[in-house]
Write a structure and sequence with these properties.
262 residues, mainly alpha, 12 helices, 77% helix, globular
Length: 262
């Protein structure tokens, strides 16, 4: 990363740009005001003057970057519900209403990959400040989409649905936070020239099973139990080999002696 923001615009804009770059790279807790002001080519007094401190700066950044996105998501979800009518939306359509506005805004941005990585960092950052900000400012949006998923998946209890959504979005957020947009798109396109719709469809096909796959059916549980037993046996064999390696020839480990005596 360069030592100073290249944008020579207003001090407030430079501070927001610097905070975004450092937040994406390090997370909220790890980035410091000193790093921000150095990258922006300004001083601590400017942060306090424009934002009142680090948290105020971060609030301004999240407001500027997320409010429009979430409003577009809500408008698209409402339009989809009107279009589908009584037939209702399935989980893939609801996921699409989440992802399409983000992709459109990344395409419109001068740094589309930066916008996508910002979204990934926002939704995966563990800091209490970011988590509380999202909960306080965007709970109605989360609630609106949760109800849409609940209608699309009536067979899934609300508690289970909450857990599934949490895992699904956490996995996606971690991917977006660590990937450049071009690299992510290339992996989904697999060397082909595909439309945005096909690329998103492939992404959604990978995520949908997190919401819809059977939740630990009998066959799946049996398979896992067999692997657990094999792991236990392999660990016991490795332990026995290690014990034997440290003993003189012909001396059995205690567990083997007990077995022979029995």
């Amino acid at each position: 990363m360069s030592t100073k923001i290249l944008n020579a615009g207003h001090t407030k804009a430079r501070l927001l740009e610097a905070a975004e770059a450092l937040f994406v790279e390090h997370g909220f807790e790890a980035m410091s005001l000193r790093q921000i002001t150095t990258l922006a080519g300004t001083n601590l007094a400017a942060v306090n003057y424009h934002f009142g401190g680090k948290e105020g700066l971060m609030q301004a950044l999240l407001h500027a970057r997320l409010d429009r996105l979430n409003q577009e998501r809500l408008r698209l979800l409402a339009a989809c519900e009107r279009q589908y009518g009584d037939a209702g939306l399935d989980a893939s359509a609801v996921l699409s209403a989440l992802f399409v506005p983000a992709l459109r805004m990344s395409r419109a941005s001068e740094d589309g990959s930066g916008f996508v990585r910002l979204l990934g960092r926002v939704y995966s950052d563990p800091s209490p400040f970011v988590r509380n900000y999202l909960r306080e400012h965007y709970q109605p949006i989360f609630g609106r989409f949760f109800e849409a998923f609940a209608r699309a998946l009536p067979q899934v209890s609300r508690n289970e649905l909450g857990m599934r959504l949490h895992l699904c979005l956490k996995a996606l957020s971690g991917l977006l936070a660590g990937e450049k947009l071009d690299e992510l798109i290339a992996s989904l396109c697999m060397g082909e020239k595909v439309s945005d719709a096909l690329m998103l469809a492939r992404l959604i096909s990978l995520l949908s099973p997190t919401l819809t796959a059977p939740f630990g059916d009998d066959e799946q549980i049996a398979q896992v139990e067999r692997v657990v037993l094999l792991a236990d046996a392999a660990a016991a064999a490795a332990d026995a080999q290690a014990v034997n390696a440290g003993k003189p020839a012909g001396v059995l480990p205690p567990w083997a002696v007990e077995t022979v005596e029995a």
